[in-house]
Specification:
Layout lengths: L1 H21 L3 H11 L12 E2 L5 E3 L7 E3 L7 H12 L3 H8 L6 E4 L3
Antiparallel strand pairs: 1-2, 3-4
Helix pairs in contact: 3-4
Length: 111
């Protein structure tokens, strides 16, 4: 009875796995498309904080970051040469990031 229960459970899981790979599911495709093309709205700017004399204690500072999709970069060596000088980074670090197998990598944060 236990063997039958496990066999049936693994059979159902195997069937579902094969079905997900072979038959496109519109619901899952729409979910993936929404996640990939999601619009991110910027956060509102916070107000400054002052002491009782009017001196600033805390202020909002804008910050930018640079990222890449390594599989979409066509001429990596040329990009590494250009970015290394602009970002004051070592070419080895940039090459390592752009040759990554990941789909998305941060090049430099807080530019």
């Amino acid at each position: 009875m236990i063997f039958l229960t496990f066999g049936l459970s693994f059979g159902i899981l195997g069937y579902r796995g094969v079905r997900l790979h072979t038959q496109p599911d519109d619901k899952l495709q729409n979910l993936a498309q929404r996640q990939y093309t999601e619009t991110v709205r910027p956060l509102p700017i916070r107000g400054n904080i002052y002491d009782r004399r009017g001196h600033e204690l805390a202020v909002s500072v804008s910050s930018y970051s640079l990222a890449a999709h390594p599989h979409l970069v066509s001429n990596k060596s040329q990009l590494v040469k250009r970015l290394a000088g602009i970002l004051n980074m070592k070419t080895g670090d940039l090459k390592k990031r752009l040759n990554s197998k990941k789909k998305f990598v941060w090049i430099k944060r807080r530019l």
